[in-house]
Specification:
Elements: H1 11-23, E1 28-32, H2 43-49, E2 53-57, E3 61-62, E4 68-71, E5 77-81, H3 85-103, E6 113-115, E7 120-121, E8 127-136, E9 142-146, H4 155-159, E10 163-167, E11 173-174, E12 179-184
Parallel strand pairs: 1-5, 3-8
Antiparallel strand pairs: 2-4, 4-5, 6-12, 7-11, 8-9, 8-10, 10-12
């Protein structure tokens, strides 16, 4: 069962939305926004006020670093994703979807690697997810192409992407030709390529 509620920056309405979800017997409550450290980021304190056990707050991932996970006093899991659309997408794809696979008894996703089409810089110390495409080079070999515009607020390049390309946290730079992991847009979708 899936229930969607829209809640503004209001603690009482947020708590009421969680209570409504729990009354339906949900196992997982997801939220987006208000999980970072700004003056409107009330979710961490609101969860503490209801006796939730914080599992973690912040991960070494870019984008999506401020994600928060907690166990609600009533037993359900809570995951708070950042409000930035791209950060939300990355958090859902690489944290929530693996959790759902594990809950469903599914095997981990297969690891798929392809060579990079061009040099790519990342921030060392953070697992980095780029959106991009798979394309064939002039000799018909499939390559991973990181989209030029990776800024979290730029949705058009993201909407035109067909894969995720990830670099591990110990990588600050990957040169053209280096093998990188590629992932489908969702955990049930294999990476897809786009003709030139």
């Amino acid at each position: 069962m899936i229930q969607v509620s829209h809640v503004g920056d209001d603690v009482a309405n947020f708590q009421a939305a969680i209570d409504a979800a729990l009354s339906r017997g949900v196992d997982l409550v997801l939220s987006t926004g208000a999980v970072s450290k700004g003056c409107y980021d009330f979710v961490p304190d609101a969860l503490a006020a209801r006796g939730a056990e914080r599992l973690f707050h912040g991960v070494a991932m870019r984008p999506g670093k401020p994600v928060l996970a907690a166990r609600l006093r009533e037993g359900a899991m809570f995951v708070g994703l950042p409000g930035n659309p791209l950060s939300t997408a990355v958090g859902f794809r690489f944290l929530v979807e693996p959790l759902l696979r594990a809950w469903l008894g599914m095997a981990p996703e297969p690891v798929r690697r392809l060579p990079l089409a061009a040099d790519c810089d990342a921030r060392a110390g953070l697992h980095t997810a780029f959106h991009g495409t798979l394309r064939c080079d002039g000799e018909g070999r499939l390559q991973a192409c990181v989209a030029d515009a990776q800024a979290s607020f730029r949705l058009l390049p993201f909407s035109q992407s067909s894969v995720w390309i990830t670099l591990p946290e110990d990588t600050a730079r990957a040169d053209a030709g280096a093998l990188v992991q590629v992932h489908g847009q969702g955990h049930l979708r294999a990476p897809s390529w786009m003709p030139a």
